[in-house]
Write a structure and sequence with these properties.
The complex is a heterotrimer of chains A (about 160), B (about 500) and C (about 325). With about 160 residues, chain A is mostly helical. Chain A folds into two domains: about 60 residues; about 70 residues, no CATH class. Helix content of chain A is about 65%, strand content about 0%. Chain A is flat. Chain B has one domain. In chain B, helix 3 runs parallel beside helix 13, helix 7 runs antiparallel to helix 18 and helix 11 runs antiparallel to helix 12. In chain C, strands 1, 2, 3, 4, 5, 6, 7, 8, 9 and 10 form a ten-stranded mixed beta sheet that branches. Chain C has about 325 residues and is of the alpha/beta class. Chain C is built from eleven helices and ten strands. Chain C starts with a helix and ends with a helix. Classes of the chains: A mainly alpha (about 160), B mainly alpha (about 500), C alpha/beta (about 325). Chains A and B meet through helix 1, helix 2, helix 3, helix 4 and helix 5 of A and helix 8, strand 2, helix 9, helix 16 and helix 17 of B.
Chain lengths: ~160, ~500, ~325
C-alpha cells in the first residue's frame, strides 16, 4: 500500500532522528575513565542511543510510506490559542528571574486563560496574583524558602 | 502477643488530642502536596524539618507519616481528573483513571483509588507491625545482581504500557532511557549528556519530565486544539460511588496491589513507582476484559493505587528496623530523628520503642483518617472538572512552575520542563504513549547502575547473574513471561489440530 | 485548581506557621548584625542546610543577629549555587554561604570556572571522620588483614561507598596511595546515597565499605558492621576504633563543613563576620546542637582556616587526578 508521505509526521520523525544523533554525539563525548570498572560509562548510552536511532528511523520510514499506522489524519492546529499559552510560558521564564515568581505567575495565568478563550484579563490577572502570592507566601513563611523572590525580596 | 501490647501502648500515645491534630494536619497537608504536581512528600517533609525544634518527637513523626501517606492519596486525584499526576508513583494511575474520568466515571475512579489505598495501606501496616524484621532480612539478601535481574522482569512488563503501536512505544522507551543517562555517572564520576551545563550534572528529575509530559503537554495539546473543541469530557454520569460490578472488579486488584507494593518498599532499589507498574502489568494480564485497558479499566486504577500505598508502608520497615532509608522521604525522616538526638539504627526498637510504636499506631489512624477525609472529598474533587477551562489550565501551569522551579530555583529545570512539554504535545498529537518515557527514565538508571555494580563486585564475571540463585530465579521468571504466551498458543493450536 | 483547594492548602500552612510563632522570643544581648543572608548551595534537609539553619538557631537564640534570610539553590555538589552566590552577592557584607569538602571536590571534578577559592573563608565549623567497615562475616578481623589484601591486589576487595569522586572515594584513594597503590585500581562500587550502600554492606554484597562515621555508627554499635579504622586525626569520642594514623598509615581525611563570605568585602567586614561566627560558636546553644546532632566540633576561623583550605584543595586534587577526574 503505497501512499503519500505525510509532511508533519515526517518532521516529527526527523526530530526524533535528530535527537538520536545528538545522543550518539554525546555518547562519543563521554570522557574515557581510567577507573577500574568492568563496564564503563559508555555502554548503556550506546545501547540507548542506537535503540532510539533504529526506532526513529523505522518511524521515519513509516511516515514516508503514508504515515504512522493507526494515527488519525492530520489535525488542524489552533495557532492563536497555542500562541497565547506559549507566550505565557515564555513570559513566565523571563519574569521569574527578574521580577520574581509572583509576577511571572500573573503573566502565565492571564496568558493561559486568554489562550483558552477568557475575555477578562484583569480578573484573570487578579486570580493569578492571588494564586502566586499564596504559593509564594506559603513557601517563604512556612517553609523558609524564597522561591524566585525577585523584586519582592525584602518586601514580604 | 507482646507486639500487640506494644502496639496498644503506641495507640495510647497516638490517640492523644494533640497527636490526633498533628496526624490530621499531616494527612491534610500530604493530600494537598500530593495533588500539586512536582511537589512531593520528600520536599514537604524536608521543608517541615524546622518543626522538630518546637514539638515533641512523637508528634513530629506522626505529622511526617501523615504527609507521606497523604501524598500517595492526593497524587492520584489529579492523575484521574486532569491527566496530570501529582506524584511519580501515580503516573500509572493516569493511564486508566483519566480515561474513566473522560467517560464521566471520575467518581468511581477516585473511590476505588481511595478505598484501595486504605485497604492496601492498612494491610501493609499490619504486615509492618508483625513481620518487619523478617522482610528486611530477606531484602538484604538482594544485591546488585538481583536488582538487575528484577529490572529485566520490569522491562518485560513495560510491554503493558507500550500502547497501540509497538514501534512508537519502544521509541518512547528509548527516549526515556536517554533522558535517564543525563548527569554525572555514579560509578566513574564522568559527566554524560550534560552539554557542559552545570545544572544538568545531577541529571534530570523524573518529576520534572513527568510534569512536562503530563501537565504541560496536556495543556499545550488542548490549546492547540482549542478552536476545534477537543476538550470534551463527558458529563458525570451515574453514581459517584462504586457499583457492585466496580467493587467486585476492584477488590482483588487492591489485594494484589498490596501484595506487590509492600515488599518493594523494603528493598533499597524499589521506589514507589516500580510496584505500581508491575501491578498494572499483572492486572492487565489477569483481566477478564483486557480490551478495556487503555479505555478506562477500573482494575488499572485499583491495583496501582493499592500498590503505591503499600510500598509507602514498606519503606518504613527498613527505616525503623535498620535505620536504612530506601526512599528520599525516608532519608529526610531519618535526619529528623537526628535532630532529636535519636540515632536511627538496628537498636531503634529497643531504645525508642515508645516513639516507634506510636508512629506505627499513627499509621493506622492516618490511613483511616485519609479515607474519611478523601471519600467525602470525591464529590468536591469532581467539581474541579467544572472549573472554567481558562482558569483551570492557568492554575495547572502555575503549579507546574512551582513544581519545576520552586525549590531549586533553576531556570534550566524550567526550560527542560517546557521542552519536554512541547515534545509531549507532539507525542499526543501523533498518538505516542507517554508512560514508557517515564518508565525508561526510572528503570534505565536502576538497571544500568545495578548491572555495573554487580560486574565490579564479581570482578567482571557475567555469570554472576545466573549463579546467584535469587537472580537466576528472577531471570527465569522474565524468560517465562516472554516465552509462555507464544508456547501456550502453539500448544493450543496443535491440540486443536489433533 | 480550585479556589477551595488553594485556600485549604494555605490555611493548613498558616496553621502550622503559627506553631512556629509560639517559639520563645530571645532576650536581646548585643546584636552584631541586623540581618544575615544565608545561602545554602543545596536543597533543604541535607547537611549544609541543617548547618545553616543551626547557625540561625544559635545566633537568634543568643540575640546576635536580628533576622535570617535563606536561599537554597542545590545541585552538583554546590556548583550550581556557588556561581550564583558569587555573582549576586559580591561585596555584600552580611552574606554567608555554607560549604565544605564536597564543594572542594565538586569544583575540581566539574572543572568549574568558579570554585570555592572564589569565596572568602570565614570559619570551619564541624567535621566528620570517615570509617572503614566490613560485614560481620568478613574474613578480615582487623585493619592489618584488610590492608594486606588491598596492598596485594586492590581489585580483589570490592569497597562500597558514595558516588565516584565524592568524599568516600577520595578517602579510599588517599588510603590506597598511602599503601603504595594507585587509587584507580580500587574495585570501588558507588551507591546512590547512604541507604543502598548500607544495605549492600549489611547483606555482605561488597567486601568492605567506607563512609562518614555517622552513616554507619548505629550499625557498628549493633554489631552488624565491623569497624576497622577511622580516617580522622583523633579517635571519635566514645569509640575504641583506631585511627589510620595509629595504625601506621599517614592518612587523614574528614568531611568538613564551614561558612564563607561573598567576594569583594573589605578586611574589616570579613573580620566582623569572623567575630560573629566565633561568637555563635561560643554560645551554649551551639554546643547543644553539636551534641544533639553528633557533629564533631572542628572550629577553625580566619587565616588558619584559609591555610587549611589550600592544603585540602591540593590533597583532593592529587587524588582526583589519579582517578582521572581532574
Amino acid at each position: 500500500m503505497r501512499a503519500h508521505p505525510r509532511r508533519d509526521e515526517l518532521a516529527f520523525a526527523l526530530l526524533l532522528v535528530a535527537f538520536a544523533l545528538l545522543s550518539l554525539w554525546q555518547t562519543l563525548a563521554i570522557p574515557v575513565s581510567p577507573i577500574y570498572a568492568r563496564v564503563g560509562p559508555t555502554v548503556f548510552p550506546w545501547v540507548a542511543s542506537v535503540g532510539l536511532l533504529v526506532f526513529s528511523l523505522v518511524l521515519l520510514w513509516q511516515a514516508w510510506r503514508g504515515g504512522f499506522p493507526g494515527v488519525d489524519r492530520q489535525k488542524a492546529v489552533d495557532w492563536r490559542s497555542l500562541g497565547w499559552v506559549g507566550a505565557g510560558l515564555a513570559a513566565n521564564a523571563v519574569l521569574i528571574t527578574t521580577l520574581g515568581f509572583v509576577f511571572a505567575a500573573v503573566a502565565l495565568f492571564a496568558c493561559t486563560a486568554r489562550g483558552f478563550g477568557s475575555r477578562r484579563p484583569v480578573r484573570d490577572a487578579l486570580i493569578g496574583l492571588g494564586v502566586g502570592l499564596a504559593a509564594f507566601l506559603g513557601f517563604a513563611r512556612l517553609l523558609g524558602v524564597n522561591m524566585g523572590a525577585g523584586i519582592l525580596e525584602g518586601l514580604l | 502477643m507482646e507486639t500487640l501490647a506494644l502496639l496498644a501502648g503506641g495507640f495510647a500515645t497516638a490517640l492523644s488530642a494533640q497527636n490526633l491534630l498533628f496526624a490530621f494536619a499531616g494527612c491534610f497537608l500530604g493530600t494537598a502536596v500530593g495533588v500539586l504536581p512536582g511537589i512531593g512528600p520528600a520536599l514537604t517533609v524536608a521543608l517541615l524539618l524546622p518543626i522538630t525544634f518546637k514539638v515533641p518527637a512523637a508528634s513530629a513523626f506522626i505529622l511526617f507519616a501523615g504527609v507521606y501517606y497523604g501524598a500517595m492519596y492526593g497524587g492520584s486525584t489529579t492523575s484521574i481528573l486532569l491527566n496530570t499526576p501529582g506524584e511519580s508513583a501515580t503516573i500509572i494511575t493516569a493511564l486508566e483513571g483519566f480515561q474513566m474520568a473522560k467517560q464521566g466515571r471520575a467518581g468511581p475512579a477516585l473511590a476505588t483509588a481511595a478505598i484501595g489505598s486504605f485497604v492496601a495501606g492498612t494491610i501493609a501496616t499490619v504486615a509492618l507491625t508483625f513481620f518487619a524484621p523478617i522482610v528486611v532480612e530477606l531484602a538484604l539478601k538482594l544485591g546488585p545482581a538481583e536488582y538487575f535481574s528484577l529490572m529485566v522482569i520490569a522491562f518485560v512488563a513495560v510491554s503493558a504500557v507500550l500502547g497501540s503501536s509497538a514501534v512508537r512505544g519502544l521509541t518512547m522507551l528509548f527516549l526515556g532511557l536517554v533522558f535517564g543517562i543525563v548527569g554525572v555517572d555514579l560509578q566513574t564520576g564522568q559527566p554524560r549528556f550534560t552539554f557542559g551545563l552545570i545544572e544538568l550534572l545531577d541529571g534530570i528529575e523524573v518529576t520534572i519530565v513527568a510534569v512536562g509530559l503530563f501537565a504541560v503537554a496536556e495543556t499545550l495539546h488542548l490549546a492547540s486544539r482549542h478552536r476545534y473543541g477537543e476538550d470534551q469530557l463527558l458529563p458525570l454520569s451515574g453514581s459517584l460511588w462504586l457499583t457492585r460490578e466496580d467493587f467486585s472488579r476492584s477488590w482483588k486488584a487492591w489485594l494484589r496491589g498490596a501484595l506487590i507494593g509492600f515488599p518493594f518498599g523494603a528493598i533499597p532499589a524499589g521506589g514507589a513507582e516500580l510496584p505500581t507498574f508491575f501491578s498494572y502489568y499483572i492486572e492487565r494480564k489477569l483481566a477478564g476484559r483486557p480490551e478495556e485497558f487503555g479505555r478506562g479499566a477500573i482494575e488499572g486504577v485499583a491495583g496501582p493505587e493499592a500498590a503505591n500505598n503499600a510500598s509507602a508502608a514498606g519503606v518504613l520497615m527498613p527505616m525503623l528496623t535498620l535505620g536504612l532509608p530506601t526512599s528520599v522521604t525516608a532519608a529526610i525522616m531519618l535526619s529528623a530523628f537526628q535532630s532529636y538526638g535519636i540515632q536511627p539504627g538496628p537498636l531503634l526498637f529497643q531504645t525508642q520503642g515508645d516513639l516507634v510504636w506510636s508512629m506505627i499506631a499513627s499509621l493506622y489512624i492516618g490511613n483511616a483518617m485519609l479515607l474519611v477525609l478523601n471519600l467525602p472529598l470525591i464529590g468536591l474533587w469532581v467539581r474541579v472538572l467544572r472549573i472554567p477551562r481558562p482558569q483551570l489550565y492557568g492554575g495547572i501551569l502555575v503549579f507546574a512552575t512551582i513544581g519545576a522551579y520552586g525549590v531549586a530555583n533553576s531556570v534550566i529545570d524550567l526550560a527542560v520542563m517546557y521542552a519536554v512539554g512541547l515534545m509531549g504535545m507532539l507525542m499526543k498529537r501523533y498518538d505516542f504513549p507517554v508512560a514508557p518515557v517515564v518508565l525508561g527514565m526510572i528503570l534505565g538508571p536502576l538497571a544500568e547502575q545495578s548491572f555495573r555494580q554487580a560486574m565490579t563486585i564479581s570482578q567482571g564475571d557475567v555469570t554472576t547473574f545466573v549463579t546467584r540463585p535469587i537472580s537466576a530465579t528472577f531471570l527465569a521468571l522474565a524468560a517465562a513471561l516472554v516465552l509462555a504466551p507464544p508456547v501456550l498458543r502453539a500448544y493450543a493450536v496443535s491440540r486443536a489440530r489433533a | 485548581m480550585t479556589i477551595r483547594r488553594r485556600t485549604f492548602f494555605v490555611a493548613t500552612v498558616a496553621a502550622l506557621a503559627s506553631t512556629q510563632a509560639l517559639a520563645p522570643r530571645p532576650t536581646r544581648a548585643q546584636q552584631r548584625f541586623e540581618s544575615i543572608f544565608m545561602f545554602i548551595p543545596a536543597g533543604p534537609g541535607g547537611g549544609w542546610d541543617s548547618t545553616g539553619r543551626a547557625i540561625e538557631q544559635a545566633a537568634r537564640a543568643a540575640g546576635l543577629v536580628g533576622s535570617f534570610q535563606f536561599e537554597n539553590v542545590g545541585g552538583a555538589g554546590g556548583m550550581v549555587g556557588l556561581p550564583r552566590f558569587v555573582n549576586q552577592r559580591r561585596g555584600q557584607a552580611n552574606a554567608l554561604i555554607v560549604g565544605g569538602s564536597v564543594m572542594v571536590g565538586a569544583g575540581i571534578t566539574n572543572k568549574s570556572p568558579i570554585t570555592i577559592r572564589d569565596v572568602v573563608p570565614i570559619a570551619r565549623l564541624t567535621e566528620e571522620a570517615g570509617v572503614v567497615v566490613v560485614p560481620p562475616n568478613s574474613p578480615h578481623r582487623d585493619w592489618a588483614s584488610l590492608a594486606a589484601a588491598l596492598r596485594a591486589n586492590p581489585g580483589s576487595v570490592s569497597v562500597g561507598g558514595g558516588s565516584a569522586g565524592g568524599t568516600d572515594h577520595i578517602a579510599l584513594g588517599l588510603i590506597l596511595k598511602a599503601l603504595g597503590r594507585n587509587p584507580r585500581e580500587a574495585s570501588y562500587v558507588a551507591f546512590a546515597g547512604g541507604g543502598p550502600a548500607q544495605a549492600a554492606i549489611l547483606g555482605g554484597q561488597v567486601g568492605a565499605g567506607i563512609s562518614g562515621y555517622s552513616e554507619f555508627a548505629e550499625q557498628i554499635k549493633a554489631g552488624r558492621m565491623r569497624a576497622l579504622a577511622t580516617t580522622g586525626a583523633e579517635r571519635i569520642p566514645g569509640t575504641d576504633i583506631p585511627t589510620l594514623k595509629e595504625l601506621g598509615l599517614n592518612v587523614t581525611a574528614a568531611n568538613w563543613r564551614g561558612v564563607f563570605a561573598a567576594p569583594g568585602i573589605t578586611p574589616a567586614q570579613r573580620q566582623a563576620l569572623i567575630d560573629l561566627v566565633t561568637a555563635v560558636h561560643a554560645t551554649p546553644q551551639w554546643k547543644e546542637i553539636l551534641a544533639q546532632r553528633a557533629w564533631t566540633d572542628a572550629f577553625l576561623a580566619g587565616d588558619a582556616f584559609a591555610a587549611f583550605l589550600s592544603e585540602d584543595i591540593a590533597k583532593t586534587e592529587t587524588v582526583l587526578k589519579d582517578l582521572g577526574l581532574a
